[in-house]
Structures are given as structure tokens and as C-alpha cells.
Design goal:
The chain has ten helices and 18 strands. It is of the alpha/beta class and 404 residues long. The strands form three sheets. Strands 1, 2, 8, 9, 10, 11, 17 and 18 form an eight-stranded mixed sheet that branches. A hairpin with a 5-residue loop joins strand 13 and strand 14. The longest helix is centred in the first third of the chain and has 16 residues. It binds flavin-adenine dinucleotide. The site of flavin-adenine dinucleotide has 42 residues, from helix 1, strand 2, strand 9, strand 12 and strand 16. Flavin-adenine dinucleotide binds next to helix 1, strand 2, strand 9, strand 12 and strand 16.
């Protein structure tokens, strides 16, 4: 046995790092995070769009984001949090429902505004085609964050409080005794290059040079993001969740400056926001097959999915240039909300994953709440009982409609 810990987390992305910070704050004992690549080049925490919103239709999702936003406000400068809002454009198919939800959302103090098509052009004159827009919501508390700075913030505080970050560690076996996990077997990878790392993360198997190491634990937490289903299989659970490729393009227009705007969500499903003088835009291709696919389709993706949608909304984006882009993984659950809590059937295993495209914006409250459940024995800040993995077996699914 190489080492023994009170708590081991499998996966050191933004979620694992946040949970570790809160656990350490609550003096959770000797804590370590295992990850084959803490720099996270293929992780979702590295490859997302940095959007933060409490604009959801389900109460638990609003609460998770809202409590996180309150925390981000306190550390805004450290993590590049800008509350420039979310402007959400609706066609006639979704506007009626969206408009009726504003009163419900505002009960949480979100101050969401109800905008007519004319209000939209007044607010953002660059948007010059409103012919298919029935209305929009503008949520001033929402905005954009730098996910790398946020993950590093969690890690820094966690490390200061004694959490150990064990890099190059791929968990390949979880050792069970009765209804308890007693340890894990890892492959310690010898500095894999990017291509080998991609193969490892596609297959879940170690390649290249590695040695085996065992670590004991009293409590195990699955924070494996899009790899959570593979990790859950190692302790005998079948998760209703899968990895799904999502692509983002960085573009530049000499004619349009959107600085000062927050996130804009188009009726077509396209989302975009200003990014250091450029425009970052993402679109979720319907019927994308599940799997560990990190390939960015490049200029073809930009030309087919991004440019026509942007140009349709802002005609001055005719001369839009493709700069670069990337693909990352969403970890999508069956009802498109996160799975958080104790794993049923096992005494000492917990999980926090399947955020379905919102792990960054919910990371702080999710981490704090799970730490409360583990250390205090119950949720104190936000009641995440509705998000427990049991809900699928118990027929308590809670579909979140407003997901992109
Ligand atoms: C294109 C795109 C846009 C997005 N936009 C937003 C957005 O605007 N706002 C938002 O809030 N969210 C967004 N998301 C979602 C968000 O990025 C994720 O929900 C979040 O990063 C999940 O964090 P995580 O820590 O759970 O997963 P990850 O960051 O993926 O971390 C999981 C870690 O587990 C490790 N791991 C895997 N297998 C093993 C193993 N066997 N042993 C040990 N470790 C292992 C991996 O190496 C990885 O580092 C977006 C995602 C994508 C792809």
C-alpha cells in the first residue's frame, strides 16, 4: 500500500477541486485527489465556455447556481467573474413558457427582465434581425467566469489546507469489501505525451510506461466528470449518464465589438459571448453520438454551425473570421441535471458528476453541499436530496428544460 487517506477523490477537475476545498475547510482529515492529468487538457473544466447563470427552471438548479454566484461575487477579481448578464432570445415556440417562468425565477431574487423584441435592439443594437424573436429574458446577476482561475483558486485553498494532489494517477480498479470501498489500484503514468494521454482517456486503460500503486481510503468520491460512468462501473454501479462531445469556435469580426455584453443565447441554440476582442460561440449538434471524442471539426464546424447562425442574427458579422476552436465533453445525465450524493448500496462512496453542461457555474455550492453531507451528515446550505442518484430508480427524475 503506497498510502492511506481518510478521503480519496477520483478526478481533479473543477468539481473534485471544489469538494476537496470544502472538505478540508471542515477538517475532513487526510484527503487526496487522484487524476491522470491534473493540467486537464482533455477535461471538461479546461474546455468549456465559462458561462454562469442562475437562470434555470428547476429550483435545485437555481439554488446551486445562486449559492455559487454569491461566492463568485466575493472572489470576482481572483477568478475573472463579470456579471454582464445572460440575454436569452426566444422564438414563439418557447417564449410563452419562458415568460411565465420569470415570476417563479424572480422569487429567488434573480431580477430577470422581460424584454420585447424592440427592447433587445435597444440593449444590443448589433442584433438587427429580430423577425423570428417573440421575446427575451435578461438576467443581470449572470455572466462569465474564467474556469481555469476558478479551478486554480479551489486547488490553492485546498492545498493550503493540506489536500494532496496526486498527478499521473489513473484509477483502474476499486477494491470492495462487503458494502465498503477499502482502496483503489492506480496506474502511475510516466509523463505521457498528449497523444498517449488521449488514448488513455478514450479507453480508460493505461498505455506507455506505468507502475501500479495501491491507496487505501475510508471514503471514496467519484468526481470523474465525463468518466464518472467508467469509474462507477468499477464499484458495480451503472450510471444513467454519458459523455457527449461539444464544440466551441473562437471567431473575430473587424466590424462588431460585443465587449460589455455577457452571454447571448440565440433562438437557434447557438450561444456566444465576447472573449478578449473576439467572439466565442458554441453550438450543440443534435444527435451527437455519445463517446470520448475530442476531435474539433475545425473550419467545417464554424462554416456549417456557427457562422450562419451568427450572421442571421447580426448582419454585420458577414466578415467573420474563424480563428480556432476545440471540443470538450459534456457529462449528460438522463434528466439533464447533476447526480450528487451518497451512492446507494455502498456505505462509504459518494459522487458528484453529470452536471450536463453546468459544472463550472454550480461548482462551489455542489462542493460545499457534498462536504456537508459527508462531514456534518446532512445538507445545510442547499438541499441536494433531489439530485441523488436514486431518483432514476425511484421515478423522481427532474428534467431541466433550459439546458443548452
Ligand atoms: C464545450 C463546453 C462548454 C461548456 N460550457 C459551460 C459553461 O458555460 N458553464 C458551465 O458551468 N459549464 C460548462 N460546461 C460544463 C463544465 O465544463 C463541466 O460540467 C465541468 O467542467 C465538469 O467538471 P468535472 O470536474 O466534473 O469534470 P472534469 O473537469 O472533466 O474532471 C474530471 C477529471 O477526472 C479525471 N479522470 C478520468 N478518469 C479517471 C480515472 N480513471 N482515474 C482518475 N481520474 C480520472 C480526468 O482526467 C479529469 O481531470 C461546458 C462543457 C463543454 C465541453
Amino acid at each position: 500500500m503506497k498510502g492511506r487517506y481518510d478521503i480519496l477523490l477520483i478526478g481533479g477537475g473543477i468539481i473534485g477541486s471544489s469538494i476537496a476545498m470544502s472538505l478540508a475547510d471542515k477538517k475532513g482529515g487526510k484527503i487526496a485527489i487522484l487524476d491522470p492529468d491534473l493540467s486537464g487538457i482533455y477535461s471538461s473544466s479546461e474546455n468549456n465556455a465559462g458561462g454562469v447563470r442562475a437562470t434555470w427552471w428547476d429550483e435545485v438548479n437555481i439554488n446551486l447556481s445562486l449559492h455559487s454566484i454569491k461566492f463568485f461575487e466575493k472572489i470576482a477579481e481572483d477568478v475573472g467573474f463579470r456579471q454582464d448578464g445572460y440575454l436569452w432570445l426566444h422564438g414563439s415556440d418557447t417564449w410563452r413558457k419562458a415568460e411565465t417562468m420569470i415570476a417563479f425565477q424572480n422569487r429567488f431574487g434573480l431580477n430577470i427582465e422581460d424584454l420585447s423584441p424592440a427592447d433587445i435592439t435597444k440593449r444590443i443594437p448589433e442584433i438587427d434581425n429580430i423577425s423570428d424573436i417573440a421575446g427575451a429574458t435578461f438576467s443581470p446577476m449572470d455572466g462569465l467566469i474564467n474556469p481555469n482561475l476558478l479551478r486554480n483558486y479551489y486547488r490553492k485553498i485546498a492545498a493550503e489546507r493540506g489536500v494532496e494532489f496526486l498527478d499521473r494517477m489513473l484509477v483502474k480498479r476499486i477494491i470492495l469489501m462487503d458494502k465498503r470501498v477499502i482502496g483503489v489500484e492506480c496506474a502511475r503514468l510516466a509523463e505521457p505525451d498528449e497523444n498517449i494521454l488521449e488514448e488513455i482517456l478514450k479507453s480508460g486503460r493505461p498505455y506507455g510506461h506505468y507502475t501500479n500503486e495501491m491507496y487505501g481510503c475510508n471514503i471514496l468520491i467519484n468526481t470523474g466528470g465525463a468518466w464518472a460512468p467508467e469509474i462507477a462501473r468499477m464499484y458495480g454501479s451503472d450510471l444513467p449518464s454519458h459523455p457527449l462531445r461539444r464544440q466551441v469556435s473562437v471567431t473575430h469580426s473587424p466590424d462588431v465589438d460585443l465587449s460589455g455584453c455577457g452571454m447571448i443565447v440565440d433562438t437557434s441554440g447557438l450561444y456566444f459571448h465576447p472573449e478578449a476582442g473576439n467572439i466565442l460561440a458554441g453550438y450543440s449538434i443534435p444527435n451527437e453520438p455519445p463517446g470520448y471524442n475530442f476531435k474539433y471539426d475545425g473550419y467545417d464546424f464554424f462554416l456549417k454551425e456557427i457562422w450562419p447562425r451568427l450572421y442571421n442574427r447580426i448582419s454585420r458579422l458577414e466578415r467573420l473570421r474563424h480563428i480556432r476552436g476545440w471540443a470538450g465533453l459534456y457529462e449528460v445525465s438522463k434528466d439533464k441535471s447533476a447526480i450528487i450524493g451518497r451512492v446507494s448500496g455502498l456505505d462509504n462512496v459518494y459522487e458528484a458528476h453529470s452536471f450536463s453542461g453546468r459544472g463550472v457555474m454550480q461548482s462551489y455550492a455542489a462542493g460545499l453541499a457534498l462536504a456537508e453531507l459527508i462531514i456534518d451528515g446532512r445538507y445545510l446550505t442547499v438541499d441536494l436530496t433531489p439530485l441523488s442518484g436514486n431518483r432514476f430508480k425511484e421515478g423522481r427524475e427532474m428534467p431541466e428544460v433550459l439546458h443548452i
